[in-house]
Design goal:
single chain; 13-stranded parallel beta sheet; 5-stranded parallel beta sheet
Length: about 260
């Protein structure tokens, strides 16, 4: 009698993207794709549980994008035994960089290039792992998502100086609903530069921040409170559920000076 056991990711594929790639390529290391949108959305792109390796260089494009009216996409969802993995080929050398132009597809000012984990129509992402990236003038938004890992990743000047609400890394639920992000891990992550919140956990639970550093460098033009690492509390009048059952493990906030207000 023979028994054959296959793991959930036994047939997972590995693809590559490069600043000098072409979406007509097969997505191999020698012939990589050019865009994340092709990798995530096209019929011959990634499936859940696959790995996308990002070659060295600067990318002026989003790994996932959210605007209320259009252009909503994220990496494909993985599964408990097979996370979808988006990783730098060499830690810190794959740079996701936004422009200096602020767009207003959200109600407050945000950069136009970022990592969005939230899926279309607010469904949310699940079982996605991001590794080794550096973001400049770009931010990470985890919206109504679960089982998300952000590892060995840094964000510099993730939001503009006039952004009132955005964070360099935001872990969000939807205000006034039961939707929440949960089971999220940030490990060996740093945020630095101008920001209102360095890392903001809002309407969410079961979030672990492990070896996370937030360094504040510049005042944002707002009299709102600020913090390097924030677990937002409840405000019934605003439909905000307090974040709970979460931990900071060996985290540091450096030079985070709030203004007198």
């Amino acid at each position: 009698v023979y028994f054959f056991v296959f793991s959930a990711n036994a047939f997972a594929a590995t693809y590559y993207v490069s600043p000098t790639g072409n979406d007509a390529n097969p997505g191999t290391s020698a012939q990589p794709w050019a865009t994340f949108r092709h990798a995530f959305q096209d019929a011959n792109g990634m499936q859940g549980g696959d790995t996308l390796i990002i070659k060295d260089g600067t990318y002026n494009q989003s790994i996932g994008q959210y605007c209320p009216s259009s252009n909503v996409y994220s990496p494909p969802n993985g599964s408990p035994g097979a996370y979808t993995i988006i990783k730098a080929e060499n830690d810190g050398k794959a740079i996701i960089q936004g422009s200096t132009t602020v767009v207003n597809c959200n109600s407050d000012n945000t950069w136009d290039t970022h990592i969005y984990l939230g899926g279309p129509n607010g469904i949310g992402s699940s079982y996605v792992q991001i590794e080794g990236l550096k973001l400049v003038r770009a931010y990470i938004s985890i919206r109504n998502s679960h089982h998300i890992k952000i590892l060995r990743t840094g964000v510099k000047n993730g939001v503009p100086t006039n952004a009132l609400y955005q964070a360099n890394i935001g872990i969000f639920g939807v205000r006034g609903t039961s939707e929440a992000s949960h089971h999220v891990l940030l490990e060996d992550v740093w945020v630095v530069g101008s920001m209102r919140y360095g890392i903001d956990t809002f309407n969410s639970y079961n979030v672990i921040l492990r070896r996370v550093v937030a360094r504040w460098d510049r005042l944002i033009g707002s009299n709102q409170p600020r913090s390097g690492i924030n677990f937002y509390g409840a405000d019934v009048s605003q439909g905000i559920t307090g974040s709970y059952d979460s931990m900071c493990q060996n985290c540091i906030a450096i030079d985070y000076n709030s203004d007198p207000d």
